[in-house]
Specification:
heterodimer; A: alpha+beta; 2 domains; 3-stranded antiparallel beta sheet; 61% helix; B: mainly alpha; f41 fragment of flagellin, N-terminal domain; two-stranded antiparallel ribbon; two-stranded antiparallel sheet; 6 strands
């Protein structure tokens, strides 16, 4: 029996060593965010049957497993999906908002200034300074509209390129997931390659944030990554995503259209919903503004007696981008309502009518005033931004609490590892002591027998 | 809940960065004094603020219009007052000429009447910022002597000022209405005839002049009444504007501006929270089991 105990003690030494190795691996990875703490699973060895009973034969290390909750992973990934979408949308919309220059230097202010310039001109119609002021105000308004449209378009273009590079990034991650899949599956089921699994889980977290993918585990520990049921990674096979710069459509390499979530969804919502609506409203406002001003201006007469020409001009289809002041000379302003000749120098009838357009329902299908339409542009954008920001904040909070929950399960507690380390150290020491005891016992047997009475 | 090294650092980091963000925002609000730094901070308040800004601008403009209008009315009023004064003097002279009458006196009356006429012409053609006060929209003189006939060379344009919402006030009277061109004989021809009659010593001419001057005085006084009525309404509008502008300013300030006391308090609170997060982190990490193991 003595020899059995020797092996029993040896299995204890082995288990203690495995435990200490795992604990030191845990301690070393304490600051690694993607790391799941590992744990040694011990089991008693097959016992040894003797006529008088069954004798234990020590301990086996059966497994070194990761401590990780699939449920928390799913919670984290679904909040990462929403957080990615809404944060991206918030960032883009805030950029648009910044471009408008509201509330101090935006279209609303320029429009109010124009009404003021008309009224100032009405006080003294032939005054060159007042006339010039009207032209300048018109120019400021047109420039402001144009700058807003250009700024929005630039943001749109950069969002489109960012989306393209985001799709590339997703593809790179998908490729790494596929390659990790094949390594993990080669490794076999027994004794999961924990550190590879951690690496893959971290990539899957990133994929959820970027593209809102669904993840299913298949036989042999492969991860199947899909969007809306369409597989992107299955085992070691990968289907890359492609992105159309014109239509903002995302398809797989087999041509199947997919609707990703996450950051990509944020970019696409911005490009396909928010921007067209905002730009449409801006173009509509621009054409309403130009139509109202031009019509009223045409009803008046310049000091030379000619009917007023257009004040603002634009090309249809790109209203906001091409808006410009059509009158070049202060003598082309039609302030008078009387044709003459001679045109009364101080007749301000038409300029008063132009100033009166402020209260006229000429915008948005003759339902609201131009001021209200300009304010609508600002507040619609502001509301969208605020809604996205609120959603992003709450989902980021959700994501961070899911992360906290994950960390509290999978993270390393240094004190705990110290205790484990001591525990295994003591096991090691005791096993060694057992070994010494057996050795002494055997020493007695080998060197001490047969010398009785010597 | 299991506390781990990572989660401890993670949440500490989050608290610290939240504290920093809060402090930065509070600082910015205090520094700019604005509660609405960008539209999305509060879209509804921003909508209201933009509306109020537009209203404020409209009211400011109406106030400027009213001030300009009042200056016009007051100027026209003082010119017409002088004309009335001079006309009354002319009437006295006519009465004088009708009762007495020797050549020297007649000569003196004629000279004074001619002077009054010239003065009246100058007053009728008086200008404000290069613009004739009594010529309607016309840019030229109101009264011109065309081939020996006094002619009204303005038009009947009504100069208006918008002094409030839907409140448009006429601020001019034309020389045609004020000096008798419209109702019959004009002031200047009457004074011409008066001068001729005085030189000729015509008693009948004096009587005619008295009648005609009375007729013109009625027109001029009517014009003065009209201007006075406009002036009073503009003055009323002005004092109303002052109240309204103050009210709108107050509302706008309430929407946009930061209460300084509140802002300072908020900053202090955010700072305290930030420092507490830092201190807590430092404290929590001071002890570890490692320290107690040998």
């Amino acid at each position: 029996m003595g020899f059995v105990s020797l092996y029993t003690a040896y299995s204890g030494l082995n288990a203690a060593q495995a435990g200490m190795d795992t604990a030191s691996h845990n301690v070393a990875n304490a600051a690694n965010p993607g790391y799941s703490r590992q744990q040694v699973t011990l089991a008693t060895r097959m016992p040894f049957s003797r006529p008088f009973g069954v004798i234990g034969t020590g301990v086996d290390v059966t497994d070194i497993s990761r401590i990780r909750s699939v449920l928390l992973d799913q919670q984290y990934r679904s909040s990462a999906d929403n957080a990615g979408r809404l944060s991206t949308l918030t960032n883009l919309l805030s950029t648009l908002e910044g471009v408008t220059g509201e509330p101090d230097h935006g279209i609303t202010t320029a429009l109010t200034d124009l009404w003021g310039a008309f009224e100032d001109l009405a006080l003294d119609p032939p005054d060159p300074a007042s006339r010039l002021n009207v032209l300048d105000s018109l120019d400021a308004l047109a420039t402001r509209i144009q700058a807003t449209a250009e700024g929005w378009d630039a943001t749109t273009a950069s969002a489109s390129t960012s989306l393209a590079s985001k799709v590339d990034e997703v593809n790179a991650v998908l490729a790494r997931v596929a390659s990790l899949n094949s390594q993990i599956m080669d490794n076999g089921l027994k004794g999961g390659p924990n550190d590879l699994l951690d690496a893959r889980d971290e990539l899957l977290d990133r994929l959820s944030n970027m593209a809102g993918v669904s993840v299913h585990m298949t036989d042999g520990s492969g991860a199947r990554v899909s969007i809306g049921g369409i597989a992107l990674v299955e085992g070691a096979t990968m289907h890359a995503l492609t992105y159309d710069l014109g239509t903002y459509e995302v398809t797989t390499d087999t041509g199947t259209p997919v609707t990703p979530g996450g950051e990509i969804a944020g970019f696409r919502a911005f490009l396909t919903d928010e921007v067209p609506a905002l730009r449409g409203a801006l173009d509509g406002f621009t054409s309403d503004l130009a139509a109202a001003l031009n019509t009223q201006h045409a009803a008046g007469f310049t000091p030379a007696g000619a009917a007023g020409g257009p004040l603002l001009s634009f090309s249809a289809g790109a209203e906001a981008l091409t808006i410009s002041v059509a009158v070049t000379s202060i003598d082309d302003l039609a302030a008078s309502g009387t044709a003459g000749p001679p045109v009364p120098l101080f007749d301000a009838t038409n300029v008063n009518a132009l100033a009166g357009l402020r209260d006229a329902l000429v915008a948005s299908g003759a339902s609201i005033t131009l001021d209200a339409a300009a304010r609508g542009l600002v507040t619609n954008l502001a509301s969208s931004t605020q809604a996205a920001a609120t959603g992003a904040d709450s989902n980021t909070a959700l994501m961070s609490s899911a992360r906290q929950a994950k960390l509290s399960v999978s993270g390393v507690n240094l004190d705990e590892e110290m205790v484990n380390l001591m525990h295994y150290q003591r096991t090691y020491e005791a096993s060694a002591r057992v070994m010494t005891a057996v050795d002494q016992m055997l020493d007695t047997l080998i060197n001490g027998t047969g010398i009785a009475g010597r | 809940m299991r506390i781990t090294h990572q989660s401890q650092f993670d949440s500490a980091l989050r608290r610290i960065s939240l504290g920093q963000a809060g402090t930065a925002q509070a600082e910015q609000r205090l520094a700019t004094g604005k509660r609405l730094d960008r539209p999305s901070t509060d879209p509804i308040a921003m909508h209201r603020a933009l509306e109020l800004r537009a209203t404020l601008k409209v009211k400011d403009q109406a106030a400027a219009n009213a001030a300009d209008g009042l200056m016009w009315v007051n100027l026209a009023d003082s010119k017409l007052q002088t004309v009335v004064e001079r006309l009354q003097r002319a009437r006295e002279l006519a009465v004088q000429g009708a009762s007495f009458g020797n050549t020297n006196e007649q000569q003196a009356i004629a000279t004074e009447v001619a002077a009054i006429r010239d003065q009246a012409v100058a007053l009728a053609n008086s200008k404000h910022k290069g613009r004739a006060l009594f010529a309607g929209f016309s840019g030229g003189d109101a009264i011109t002597d065309i081939a020996g006939t006094w002619t009204y060379t303005g038009d009947n344009g009504t100069v208006e000022r918008r002094i409030g919402d839907n409140e448009v006030m006429p601020i001019n009277v034309t020389a045609a209405d004020a000096f008798g061109f419209t109702s019959g004989r004009d002031l200047f021809s009457v004074l011409d005839d008066f001068e001729a009659a005085a030189l000729a010593g015509s008693q009948g001419g004096m009587d005619t002049a008295i009648g005609e001057i009375d007729g013109i005085l009625t027109d001029t006084l009517n014009a003065l009444t009209q201007l006075g009525a406009s002036g009073r309404r503009i003055e009323a509008a002005q004092s109303r504007h002052l109240d309204e502008i103050n009210t709108v300013r107050a509302q706008l300030s309430e929407l946009e501006d930061m209460d300084i006391n509140e802002a300072v308090l908020d900053l202090k609170m955010q700072e305290t929270a930030y420092q507490a997060a830092l201190a807590a982190f430092g404290h929590a990490n001071r002890s570890s089991l490692v320290e107690f193991l040998r």
